[in-house]
């Protein structure tokens, strides 16, 4: 029985959908065990860079890549901050040092809910 799974991702949607097993234009062997992990675990945490190598957001309204799991992601941790997936959307709960809310919002594909006090963020 696994309580938490920590995975990488290519994309995460604002509904918590996870796409983590296929990169467009590359041959892949298959999705591996990620689908089993996210289907049978209580909490899924995604660790990833905030943007793809070409600068496009990896946190998006809807995943364009094949899904590993639908509505399975609870928390997203990137190089820019920590976010929780809620019924209201993606909630920003912590910023990396030297990153402002405006910085992270500019490179995120959805509207972030800012719950960080401006005193702590500056």
Structure description:
The protein has helices at residues 34-40, 101-106, 118-121; strands at 4-7, 11-13, 18-19, 43-47, 59-60, 73-77, 81-86, 89-95, 112-114. It has 122 residues and is an alpha/beta fold. The strands form two sheets. It has a six-stranded mixed β-sheet with strand order 1-4-6-7-8-9.
Write the layout of secondary structure elements.
Elements (H helix, E strand, L loop, with lengths): L3 E4 L3 E3 L4 E2 L14 H7 L2 E5 L11 E2 L12 E5 L3 E6 L2 E7 L5 H6 L5 E3 L3 H4 L1
Parallel strand pairs: 1-4, 2-5, 4-6, 8-9
Antiparallel strand pairs: 2-3, 6-7, 7-8
Short description:
The chain is α/β, with parallel strands linked by helices and about 120 residues long. The protein has three helices and nine strands.
Q: In angstroms, what separates the terminal alpha carbons?
A: 41 Å
SSE arrangement, N to C: EEEHEEEEEHEH
- Shape designation: globular
Please estimate the helix content. Answer: 10-25%
Please state the structural category.
alpha/beta
Strand content: 25-35%
Number of helical elements: 3
Low-confidence stretches: none
Q: Please outline the major beta sheet.
A: 6 strands, mixed
Calculate the mean pLDDT score and round it.
87
Number of strands: 9
Strand order, sheet with most strands: 1-4-6-7-8-9
Rg computed from alpha carbons, rounded to a whole number of angstroms: 14 Å
């Amino acid at each position: 029985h696994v309580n938490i799974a920590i995975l990488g991702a290519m994309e995460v949607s604002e509904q918590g959908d996870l796409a983590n097993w296929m990169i467009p234009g590359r041959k892949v062997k298959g999705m591996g065990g990620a689908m089993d992990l996210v289907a049978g675990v209580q909490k899924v945490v995604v660790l990833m860079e905030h943007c793809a190598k070409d600068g496009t957001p990896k946190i998006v309204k809807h995943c364009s890549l094949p899904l590993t799991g639908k509505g399975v992601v609870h928390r997203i941790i990137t190089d820019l901050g920590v976010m929780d997936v809620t019924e209201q959307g993606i909630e920003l709960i912590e910023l990396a040092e030297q990153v402002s809310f405006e910085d992270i919002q500019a490179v995120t594909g959805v509207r972030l809910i800012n719950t960080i006090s401006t005193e702590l963020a500056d």
